[in-house]
Amino acid sequence: MASIEFEWSDEQRALRELVAGFFTRSPGDGYDRPVWRRLGTDLSALGLATSEAFGGSGASAIELGIVAEEMGRALYSAPFLATAGLAMTTLGGCALDQLVKELLPQLVDGTLVATAALSDVAGHIDLTRPPLAARRNGDRWALDGSSSFVLDGGAADVVVCYASARDIPGIFVVRGDATGLARSEVPGLDPGRHQAHLTFHGAEATEVGSGGSARTAVEAGLNVASALLAAEQAGVAQAMLATTLDYAKTRMQFGRPIGSFQAVKHRLADMYVDVEDARSASYHALWAIAEGTDDPALAASLAYTVSAEAARRVTASAIQVHGGIGFTWEHPAHRYFKRAVSNGALLGGKAMHAQRLTAAALGEHALAGPA
Amino acid sequence: MTQSTVHPGVSGYEEGRRAVSAAAGKVLAGHPPAATPVRQFLGACFDAGLAWVHFPVGRGGLGVDAGLQDFADGILQGAGGVNPFQLNPIAYGMAGPTVVAHATEDMKTRLLRPMYTCEHVWCQLFSEPGAGSDLAGLATRAVSGGADWVVNGQKIWTSLGHVARWALLLARTDPDVEKHQGLTYFVLDMRSPGVEVRPLRQMTGEAEFNEIFLTGVRIPDTQRLGEVGEGWRVAMTTLMNERNAIGAGSSVRNSGLIRVPLRLWAQRPDLRTPVLQDRLVALFARADAARLTGDRQRVERGGGPIGPEGSAAKLVLSELGQAIFDFCMDFLGPEATCYSGYDARHEPEDLGGGVKLWTSAAGDEDVQRMFLRSRAYTIEGGTSDILRNIVGERVLGLPGDLRADRDKPWAEVPRG
Predict the structure, then answer these.
(1) Cβ-defined contact of A262 to B395 (cutoff 8 Å)
(2) How far is B403 from chain A (nearest CA, A)?
(3) Least buried of A108, B16, B60, B174, by fewest C-beta within 10 Å?
(4) In this predicted structure, what is the pLDDT of residue B244?
């Protein structure tokens, strides 16, 4: 049954409470394999949008968004965007394939970690130009080329690759340990966010989708991951607003709480406005994907853009209001700031999402050519 | 019109919805908007309880959830009915809710129906030259003289003051107590002797507002709303409704002020550049996010009244509006230096029987005029500076600033 946009069900509220508790108490992060398994099995958090036929709970992107938002709030690190956002959504669009039928249940229960290689060596994503080339190799396929800034590309057991075979776009599955695949981790501005450069030299691959439907599946994955990223940004921003608010109410200077000064109070009011917009835009994208309340591409790129700006401003303001302590390694503000900034450059970056937004907002009146 | 986004779980919501639907159907059948004089149509709406649906039966309402007003308006205006907010904004948005909450039964009978039918246009006498953001510091004095009060003072920024028959008036009845404690609220017949209205010319060249001089004006005590000294509390009813009216965004994409630059962009391919395109798309994103926040907060309120988060909405939309017109001027380039005329006078459209579209301002085509007008967005109805205080203190719970006038009798507070 269709739900009213922005209205959470009791089940969704309970899910939020469950995962929030898990992220704050979790002994390790989601790169710890036993913990990742628990996310899949104990919390059933990975297969929320996956069909029950594959062991998922058959809910929707809205539920995945709740998990992402709480991850952001707790600054939790896990290969969630890559696995549940990019890879599982894309594979879900190829669900008739035999290999996909085998993989999805293992992704749902946390046995495997997956990602998708969509970006070129510069990290750009252009759905009309797959970054990799596929060629026939007997009854299998071989992939050549490079894809950089691949989210969790180092940890992934399964890499969902976007490659063209004689100008036809296709989706290919490459195992993380396949011969012909070289992976190198990129040290991150955000130490909790892992990316890798992937080089394919005739890497052994299995085709799971081809043609227009492949592009549609890849775009769906990008939309879901962008919406989840936006929800995570909303969580990041909310956490820093709450922390900064507490500090402004208790930190005394000149004999009174600093939050009583208008210079500080007004900054906090602007942080609130940003948080509210990040929440609205990211929830809207989740509902657009799950319930069709809007064009998913427009809604996802709107959410990406709005929440990226909001999270960067809010986390930067958090450092500013905290003053010197906010610049120290010990205080969490810098970690939230780094996550916000790094998040705002993932999945193609702001420029690509601005282009998608331009096309949607201005239509035929958009200027021709790359912006 | 906005679609209803009210929480369906509110008790009695479905019953209320059916009652509104039935009443609206009856009004439209008996008084088809196209064939009915405006005032008569509005009278029928009032009598059917569709004026303010949450008001009591007999007072223009049906006693149903306030969130159903959107639903009622959607039916009536969808069938060609007028939008009363555009005809008598102060009456519909502020005077009605204040009168129904605080006036005597007799005054409700005298005032509510004529204000809804636009027989009586209303204005608001709150701001003074010496009391803008610090409204509670106002100096207009009302002195009791038996059955009447005698009022002296000056009010400013009075929209529709030159045509209003009635005014909402806030005056000081006791200067020797703390400023909020010494205020009393009245409704004033603008035809009373001693009321002088002078137009106030603004930077656009037009005179949307007036100054009102009150000299020995007599107001019967029966026109007092609330107790003596309770004026501030009564005024809060009015002000919350004002901020909501200004801050209420539309839930239809691109129907707010963002429509102006989008239309300009579509019409003028010769002026497009990549840099300006990026700015326009960023404005589109801000506008759409603000729209979605309005939608979300409506759902979260579940049909309940807007709280202080309405101040955040007004803050956002007013600053966005300015950024939108800054963009429009930059887009126009050298053409931005032109002006359609500082002596132009805007005549409101007459819908018949003296009912006029008072809120119709400069057309969307007159971008330079809208640009100048936008400087007032962040001042009128609560300055952005004050609104940030409200968000900080009432939404986020931050402590108040130090106040030099705290606990002092009004008469001892420095002014100037």
Answers:
(1) no
(2) 11
(3) B174
(4) 53
Same domain, B256 and B361: yes
Q: Are both B254 and B391 inside the same structural domain? A: yes
Nearest CA in chain B to A371: B274
- Chain A residues whose CB is inside 8 A of the B393 CB are 265
Reference A49, options A223, A179, A206; nearest CA is: A223
The CATH number covering residue B381 comes to: 1.20.140.10
Q: Does B5 reside within a domain?
A: no
Find the closest chain A residue to B296 by CA distance: A6
Residue B8 within a domain: no
- Please indicate, yes or no, whether residues A58 and A127 belong to a single structural domain of this protein: no
ipTM score here?
0.95
Q: Is the Cβ pair A262, B5 closer than 8 Å?
A: no
Provide the phi-psi class of A366: left if phi over 0, else alpha when psi is between -120 and 50, else beta. Answer: beta
What's the gap in Å between the CA of A345 and the closest CA on chain B?
17
Q: Which residues of B touch A256 (CB under 8 A)?
A: 399, 402
Phi (first) and psi of residue A205, to 5 degrees: -140, 155
Query: Residue for token digits 């009321």?
Result: B195
Instruction: Name the more confident of A4 and A319.
Output: A319
Q: Which two tokens stand for residue B84?
A: 């009363």
- Looking at the fold, whether B370 and B261 belong to one and the same domain comes out as yes
CA distances from B321 to A94, A182, A244, B407 (A): 45, 52, 29, 38
Residue A1 lies in a domain: no
Each residue of A135-144: pLDDT tens digit? 999 889 999 9
SS3 assignment, position A160: strand
Residue B88 included in any domain: no
How many domains would you assign to chain A? 3
Shared domain check, B266 and B203: no
Domain holding A89, by residue range, is 10-108
A319/A235 same-domain check? yes
Residue A256 to residue B397, Cβ atoms within 8 A: no
Is A326 part of any domain? yes
Cβ separation A245–B290 shorter than 8 A: no
Question: How far is the alpha carbon of B8 from chain A, nearest alpha carbon, in Å?
Answer: 10
**Is A233 inside any structural domain?**
yes
Domains in chain B, number: 3
Last residue of a domain, one of B209, B236, B263: B236
Residues of chain A contacting residue B282, judged by C-beta atoms under 8 Å apart: 305, 354
Same domain, B207 and B320: no
Contacts of B288 in chain A (CB under 8 A): 281, 302
Domain boundary among A108, A126, A142: A108
- Measured between alpha carbons, how far apart are the two ends of chain A, in Å? 40
Q: Which domain holds residue B205?
A: 122-236
**How far B141 CA sits from the closest chain A CA (Å)?**
32
Q: Say if B105 falls within a structural domain.
A: no
Both tokens of B167, joined, read 């005014």
Q: Report the pLDDT value the prediction gives residue B7, as an integer from 0 to 100.
A: 39
Which chain A residue's Cα is nearest to B401?
A260
Query: Residue B71's closest CA among B171, B167, B4?
Result: B4
- CATH code of the domain covering residue A181: 2.40.110.10
Would the CB atoms of A362 and B278 count as touching at under 8 Å?
Answer: no
* pLDDT over 90 at A126, yes or no: yes
User: Which of B399, B346, B400 is CA-nearest to residue B370?
Assistant: B346
* In a domain? residue A3: no
Say if the Cβ atoms of A259 and B281 lie within 8 Å: no
B chain contacts of residue A354, beta-carbon cutoff 8 Å: 278, 281-282
B388–chain A nearest CA distance, Å? 5
The pLDDT tens digits of the residues spanning B265-285 come to 999 999 999 999 999 999 999
Q: How many CB atoms lie within 10 A of CB B415?
A: 11
Whole-Å CA distances, B381 to B184, B213, B306: 20, 21, 15
Residues B389, B253 share a domain: yes
CA quadruple A87, A90, A93, A99: dihedral sign: negative
